[in-house]
Structure formats: structure tokens, C-alpha cells
């Protein structure tokens, strides 16, 4: 009861259901749960949701699926976690290794800004990082059309950077070893490739070399939890299942190439630059393929944790201690594995770990800073320990 301007006004307490409170004030709702030792999802603090990883069977080289005969997909996967379903498909393109994307490349080369070496064909190539990556597009299905969301673009860029710096794919594994399509003595078409035909292939080989460029499209349905984790798991599985097509050039193209190379050499000797005269008709074999060489020792399993503070003056447990709380003994902070739901996902403090299940960590990201009032060293140690144990078990499913 309160009095204002001589008039009495009655104040009543406003009560809300937990579901409504989570929408209006998610941080307050989560704090109430933490104080009584619960999570909105009723999972334990260090408990992750089960993740199902499987092969989608969308590849054109899947022999059991005749309907995929004309598909451009060469690798695929499906990941399920709760209501969330993630479908990843991998495709590829072909690019010249010596293709110059900037006009000032040779200027930088002459000034020593870029180191270079000549390959076996005499072409100058710059020494770059030996790791390769995959260009990824993430699409979250929300029943609308429009430009990509900032979250989708951020996750796509993070996936590219993660694969690149992990060393999972080497540039050497994307090199194309060209074959030659010809006819045998009976007039039947055949494709010549292999070490036993090296001398023949070198005679018709072009002066330029080629490599695959990998692309992936990841579609997310009913997103909950960490979008980056589920997309990365689906991408790792799809890469392990990827089959690169065998590439060859026709005999007609190879014959034309001999005269083209001769003209190119004459032009170079005369001081003219005529590499653009070389044209190739490269074809992908619809039946023959080989597995993408993935560095299995560099495989990892992502884990995300949320750090939540409840504002209660309690005693922090040690990093090795149990994170469960009782009603009589509360913590001032809690480490929540695999944040799920509006209240947990909106936590401003998070820890992301990329362990291999042994002793290596390919990446760790701490959001919120490392101080006594935000994320502590004990939280990071605990997150690393839990994620390593999880990765050791989950990596068997990839």
C-alpha cells in the first residue's frame, strides 16, 4: 500500500509463467533457474544433447542411387540434434593454378614481396600456405526470402577460417592429375591415366596445372543451440565422404594443344605474352572418382559453453569440482554445456573449444573477457577438460 497526492494506491505483485518470463527477460529467467540448480532444458550443467551424424547419400558417385546420376554433389551429410536438422552438400570447380587475380602480382614478385619458384614445366608460382579450405554458404530456413542474415555470413566465414587453419585439407590433395580420352585398337573409347602411362601423358600434358576448388551449401532447419557447432560437424562429415571426379581431356583437345604450345613458345621467345592462347576442354568422369584426402589426425569436435552469473554471493567451486548445485549451496557462476533455448543462447559470455580428443586444441574462443567478473581461468580449464572427453567419444562417429 502506498500514498500519492493524498490518494491511496494498492500495488500488487506481478507473476509470470517461466515461459513468458523467458521471452520478456531471458537473463532474469535464467538467473532464477541457476539459483535453484536447474537449467530451463532440465539437462545437467555439463550435459550435451546427443548428435546423430550420417551420410546423406546425395553424391553423384553413390552407386546405389541412380537418381543422383546427373547431380553436381560429390559429398553430403545429415546432422540431427534435438529438433534441428542440418544438411550439407559439397560440390567442386576447376581453376588454373597459375591464374593471376591481381594486376600488380608480377610487380610484387619483382620487388621480392612474394617469393616464387619454377615448377617442372618452367612456370613461375608463388609460395603460399600449403593448407586449403572450402567456400561455404549457410542458409537458415525461416520461411522467408531475402538476403543472408549477419549470423549466416558470420558462420560461413568462421567455417572457412576454421578449416583453413586446422590443416584438414592440403593443397596437394586438390591437385588434378589429367587423363587422356582416346580410342583403343578396336575403336572403343578409353581413358588413359595412371603411372604406367606417364610418358604418354607428359607428351600431351598442357603447360598449365589445375586444381579443384571446393564449395559447400549448408541448410539448417529448426535451429536451436550453437549454429556454428552443428554446421561444422556436418561439414567435417561431408568432407570425409567427398569423392573427387577423375578429370581428362579429349584427344582432339590434346592434339590442338601441341600446336598451341608451339605457338606460345615462339611468342614468348619474341617477347610476347600469349598464355591466353591456350584453351582446354576438361571433362569430369561421371563414373570414376577418388576420395578426397583428409588429414584425419587434424579432425576435431566443436563444443560451446555458456558462462552464466546469478549474482548470489556463493563460494566458487574448483575447476575439477562438480558443477551441480543444490538449493542450500549455490554458485556465483555456472558453466552450461551446449546452450539451448532463448535464455541460454543469449548469454553474453561463451567459450568455444575445438579439441581433437587427445591433447591438441585447434582453436579456442572466449567471449566476455578473462577477469574475475567475467570468464575465469577455472571456467576455461573446465570447458577444455569436458570438451576433450566429449571429442574422444564423438569423433568415432565421423
Automatic annotation (TrEMBL):
What parts of the sequence cross the membrane? Answer: none
- Domain (Exoribonuclease phosphorolytic) spans 47-245
Highest taxon, organism lineage: Eukaryota
Alphabetized Gene3D superfamilies for the sequence: GHMP Kinase, N-terminal domain (3.30.230.70)
GO CC annotation: what is one?
nucleolus
Q: Where in the cell is it found?
A: Cytoplasm; Nucleus, Nucleolus
Which terms does the record give in the GO molecular function aspect?
A: mRNA 3'-UTR AU-rich region binding
- One Pfam family, please name it: RNase_PH
Which of UniProt's keywords are assigned here? Cytoplasm, Exosome, Nucleus, RNA-binding, rRNA processing
**One GO-annotated biological process of the protein:** nuclear polyadenylation-dependent rRNA catabolic process
- State the InterPro entries in the record: ExoRNase_PH_dom1 (IPR001247), Exosome_comp_Rrp42_subfam (IPR050590), PNPase/RNase_PH_dom_sf (IPR027408), Ribosomal_Su5_D2-typ_SF (IPR020568)
Of which family is this protein a member?
Belongs to the RNase PH family.
List the PANTHER family hit by this protein, alphabetically. EXOSOME COMPLEX COMPONENT RRP43, EXOSOME COMPLEX EXONUCLEASE RIBOSOMAL RNA PROCESSING PROTEIN
Q: What is this protein called?
A: Ribosomal RNA-processing protein 43
Q: Which organism is it from?
A: Dekkera bruxellensis (Brettanomyces custersii)
**What is this organism's lineage?**
Eukaryota, Fungi, Dikarya, Ascomycota, Saccharomycotina
Amino acid at each position: 500500500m502506498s500514498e500519492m497526492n493524498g490518494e491511496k494506491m494498492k500495488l500488487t505483485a506481478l507473476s509470470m509463467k517461466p515461459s513468458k518470463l523467458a521471452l520478456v527477460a531471458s537473463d532474469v529467467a535464467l538467473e532464477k533457474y541457476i539459483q535453484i540448480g536447474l537449467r530451463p532444458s532440465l539437462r545437467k550443467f555439463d550435459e550435451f544433447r546427443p548428435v546423430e551424424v550420417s551420410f546423406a547419400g546425395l553424391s553423384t558417385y553413390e552407386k546405389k542411387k541412380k537418381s543422383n546420376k546427373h547431380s553436381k554433389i560429390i559429398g553430403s551429410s545429415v546432422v540431427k540434434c534435438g529438433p534441428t536438422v542440418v544438411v550439407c552438400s559439397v560440390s567442386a570447380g576447376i581453376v588454373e593454378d597459375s591464374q593471376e587475380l591481381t594486376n600488380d602480382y608480377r610487380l610484387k614478385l619483382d620487388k621480392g614481396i612474394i617469393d616464387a619458384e619454377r615448377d617442372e614445366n618452367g612456370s613461375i608460382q608463388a609460395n603460399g600456405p600449403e593448407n586449403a579450405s572450402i567456400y561455404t554458404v549457410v542458409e537458415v530456413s525461416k520461411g522467408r526470402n531475402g538476403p543472408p542474415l549477419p549470423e549466416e555470413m558470420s558462420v560461413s566465414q568462421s567455417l572457412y577460417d576454421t578449416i583453413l587453419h586446422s590443416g584438414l585439407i592440403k593443397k596437394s590433395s586438390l591437385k588434378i592429375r589429367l587423363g587422356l580420352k582416346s580410342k583403343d585398337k578396336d575403336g572403343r573409347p578409353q581413358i588413359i591415366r595412371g603411372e604406367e602411362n606417364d610418358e604418354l601423358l607428359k607428351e600431351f600434358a598442357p603447360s598449365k596445372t589445375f586444381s579443384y576448388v571446393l564449395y559447400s551449401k549448408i541448410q539448417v532447419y529448426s535451429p536451436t543451440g550453437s549454429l556454428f557447432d552443428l554446421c561444422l560437424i556436418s561439414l567435417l562429415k561431408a568432407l570425409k565422404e567427398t569423392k573427387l571426379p577423375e578429370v581428362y581431356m579429349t584427344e582432339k583437345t590434346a592434339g590442338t594443344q601441341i600446336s598451341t604450345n608451339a605457338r606460345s613458345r615462339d611468342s614468348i621467345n619474341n617477347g610476347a605474352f600469349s598464355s591466353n592462347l591456350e584453351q582446354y576442354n576438361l571433362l569430369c568422369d561421371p563414373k570414376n572418382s577418388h576420395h578426397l584426402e583428409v588429414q584425419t589426425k587434424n579432425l576435431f569436435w566443436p563444443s560451446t559453453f555458456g558462462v552464466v552469473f546469478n549474482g548470489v554471493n556463493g563460494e566458487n567451486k574448483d575447476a575439477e569440482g562438480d558443477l551441480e548445485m543444490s538449493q542450500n549451496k549455490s554458485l556465483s557462476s555456472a558453466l552450461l554445456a551446449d546452450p539451448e533455448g532463448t535464455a541460454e543462447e543469449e548469454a553474453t559470455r561463451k567459450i568455444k573449444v575445438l579439441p581433437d580428443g587427445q591433447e591438441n586444441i585447434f582453436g579456442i574462443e572466449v567471449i566476455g573477457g578473462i577477469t574475475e567478473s567475467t570468464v575465469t581461468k577455472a571456467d576455461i580449464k573446465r570447458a577444455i577438460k569436458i570438451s576433450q572427453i566429449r571429442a574422444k567419444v564423438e569423433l568415432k562417429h565421423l
